[in-house]
């Protein structure tokens, strides 16, 4: 329809990068683009920690499940939900901040997601590629300590950025009529449509891996959701002052 929609529809996760660096002025321009994202009630509750290559980055790669591209990507950013500056704003006006609400946790986390998506799209518009790193939450307390994150700040995810050194196929998404509902939530045809989609995803994996992986979307999801999902997150968030009430 237009170049921007074409860019959005061409998104792929890039995990292999050339050695070509990204200059700091570009990084700052990308982060500034992130700041332009929508923010709930103007709270601007996202902070970004840029981590240089070296021992600290290597430690983060190990904490994220030994994802080595965390170590080798030219740029690695950690997006943090940050309500600490809001405490400062209250202190500046001798106001007692009411913190710990689940709504604050949601809005701060959503701010980070919107901010980061702007960064990714801006990067792709420059010919760069990247991949989000939710694996930081595998060892979130250790990541928080390593980055010296104070109370009311927690790491939501990371982002590797660089010049792509691979050209993967675009991963097929769910059928539009499964996602886009009209007037009410009607899932009467979803099982049939997802079965069709499963065949597409199975072929995608088979082609991508040269036959080493053949798995449908529903198989992947059902295998994931029978396991615990980072049960350490809730006590960690409580300890950071989030989602207490």
UniProtKB/TrEMBL annotation:
GO terms for molecular function: FMN reductase (NADPH) activity. It holds the Pfam family Nitroreductase. InterPro entries: Flavin_OxRdtase_Frp, Nitroreductase. Its EC number is 1.5.1.38. Residues 10-163 form the Nitroreductase domain. The keyword Oxidoreductase applies. Keywords: Flavoprotein, FMN, NADP, Oxidoreductase. Belongs to the flavin oxidoreductase frp family. PANTHER family: OXYGEN-INSENSITIVE NADPH NITROREDUCTASE (PTHR43425). This is Oxygen-insensitive NADPH nitroreductase. It comes from Marinobacterium weihaiense.
């Amino acid at each position: 329809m237009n170049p921007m929609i074409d860019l959005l529809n061409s998104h792929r996760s890039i995990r292999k990068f050339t050695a070509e660096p990204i200059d700091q002025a570009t990084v700052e321009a990308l982060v500034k683009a992130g700041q332009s994202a929508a923010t709930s009630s103007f709270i601007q509750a996202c902070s970004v920690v840029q981590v240089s290559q070296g021992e600290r980055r290597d430690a983060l790669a190990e904490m994220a499940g030994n994802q080595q591209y965390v170590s080798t990507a030219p740029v690695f950013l950690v997006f943090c939900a940050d309500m600490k500056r809001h405490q400062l704003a209250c202190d500046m006006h001798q106001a007692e901040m009411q913190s710990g609400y689940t709504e604050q946790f949601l809005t701060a986390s959503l701010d980070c997601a919107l901010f980061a998506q702007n960064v990714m799209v801006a990067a792709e518009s420059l010919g760069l590629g990247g991949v989000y790193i939710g694996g930081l939450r595998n060892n979130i307390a250790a990541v928080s300590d390593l980055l010296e994150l104070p109370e009311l700040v927690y790491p939501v995810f990371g982002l590797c950025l660089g010049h792509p050194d691979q050209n993967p196929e675009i991963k097929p998404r769910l059928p539009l009529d499964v996602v886009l509902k009209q007037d009410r939530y009607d899932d009467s045809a979803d099982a049939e449509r997802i079965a069709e989609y499963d065949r597409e995803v199975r072929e995608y994996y088979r082609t991508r891996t040269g036959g080493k992986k053949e798995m449908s979307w529903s198989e992947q999801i059902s295998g994931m959701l029978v396991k615990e999902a980072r049960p350490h997150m809730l006590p960690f968030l409580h300890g950071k002052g989030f989602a207490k009430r």
